[in-house]
Amino acid sequence: MIYIEPKSDSIFYNLASEYYFATEKQFDEDVFMLWRVTPTLVIGKFQNTLEEIDAAYAKERGITVVRRMSGGGTCYLDPGGIQFAIITKSLKLEIEFERFERPVIDVLASLGVKAEMSGRNDIMTAGKKISGNSQFRLGPVTVHHGTLLFDSDLDELQRATTPKEYKITSKAIKSVRERVTNIREHLPVDMTIDEFKDALANAISDKVYEITPADDRRIREIAEEKFADPKIIYASSPKFEIEKTLHLAGGEFNIGLSVNRGKICDSGITGDFFAGVSAEEIAGALIGVEYTPDAVFAALSEFDGKLYRATARELVDGIFM
Amino acid sequence: MTIEIKMPAFRGDEKSILCAWSVDEGDTVDVGDILFEAECDKVTSPCLADVKMKITSILADEGDEIAPGTTVALAEAVN
Question: What is the DSSP string of A68-113?
Fold first, then answer.
């Protein structure tokens, strides 16, 4: 297997690297990747972002939010964890996980950590989860990726994956919370995260490919286009309805939005502090608008100064936080 | 000729979620175009058109859990 290490702590760059080596720069052999990131919440492809996270908490703590291309629920990553990916060509329709997880389980065993597959796609040790795994397919290519909790902040993991209570109606994929543990706690002989990473890379791969400046340029473009764009993070949630009551200085502002294919398709607003504009006018201005903070702000900013003790920025923060 | 577009079997008899339609009724698609995306067991898979066709009827909603082999849309072959 060919080993490729993106050597970036940006989630956008690292997910873009996986996509690039799955679609644009392909090898005959399987590719194995390892990477780490700054604190990040990673939403499953078909999840509703606001249903899964507390956006205000993430912003306050500087936690990046991103949507991955694979399925499943939301996970929290930090520099104490390592992510692995295996990119392979396969025309098989039948889902398989063991083929991708077995090499990692074998390395853990060689380090004295008894781990096993559980729940069909997790890796557990001592009855607790140390690795969540998911996949996406692009034509004949499958990308399998998994988390490895090595020395992560488990308190922050718990808090960051606790969503804020919103009244949202959707058929989006919901996350399942499970008990977790760090691999480091189970090592008979302590090692650093870099030593752990090297042990994985040396055992699973037998050659190395270094990312070239041309690869790097293209990966950065993909990172912007497919992962860092707020349209992908917020607006590509499956269709949903959200109701929120904003408690602002001027009074209560009740808003209900229906969002389909990333755009607001229905909107209802009630409240008691409309001065120079009606609730219907504001609601109407949101129809057809992309469901991202910037686009909603642009649509509402024309009403600044016409609302009693409320600004467009406060309304947008109230809707998205 | 009517074409029945079916949910594939990704893991035995296990149901998949039809997560997102990429086409609307009335659309004509080419071979290889994505018809819909499904998720089964944390694996996302695009389901592609294997012939050129015009979508005549969509029978399943986004978010529905669907057994393998179930018809999710009807189409007419296009020459």
Answer: -SS-S--EEE-TTEEEEEEEEE----S---HHHHHHHHHHHHHTT-
What are A99's two structure tokens? 């083929």
Q: How far is CA A50 from CA A43, A47, A248, in A?
A: 10, 9, 20
Q: Which residues lie across from A284 on neighbouring strands?
A: none
- Asked if the Cβ–Cβ distance from B61 to A171 is below 8 Å, we say yes
Residues whose CB falls within 8 Å of the CB of residue A204, separated by 6 or more in sequence, listed in order:
A1, A3, A32, A103, A104, A107
Find all residues with CB under 8 Å of A102, minimum gap 6, and list them. none
Q: Is B9 on the interface with A (CB under 8 A)?
A: yes
Tell me if chain A has a CB within 8 Å of the CB of B64. Answer: yes
* Ordered mean pLDDT values, 10 residues apiece, chain A (321 residues): 97 98 96 98 93 90 96 96 96 90 98 92 95 94 97 94 81 84 98 98 98 98 96 85 85 88 90 74 92 93 82 88 83
Question: What residues contact A155, with CB distance under 8 A and at least 6 apart?
Answer: none
Q: How confident is the model at residue B19 (pLDDT cuts 50, 70, 90)?
A: very high
| Position B79 confidence tier, pLDDT thresholds 50, 70, 90 | confident
In whole angstroms, what is the distance from residue A267 CA to residue A51 CA?
A: 19
Distance CA A275, CA B26 (A): 45
How does residue B8 score in pLDDT terms, banded at 50, 70 and 90?
A: very high
How high is the pLDDT of residue A141?
A: 95
Beta-carbon separation of A70 and B10 below 8 A: no
Q: How far is CA A123 from CA A51, A102, A164, A275, B20, in A?
A: 26, 10, 28, 57, 29
ipTM for the whole complex: 0.92
| Tokens (6 digits) for A44 | 């499953």
- Strands B43-48 and B65-66, sheet pairing: unpaired
Q: Could you tell me the two tokens for A182? A: 């760090």
- Cross-chain Cβ contact A121/B41 below 8 Å: yes
CB-based burial label for A71 (10 Å; 0-12, 13-18, 19+): buried
CA distance A166 to A245: 10
A321 Cβ neighbours under 8 A, 6+ residues apart: A55, A56, A59, A164
Cα gap A177→A158, rounded to integer Å: 9
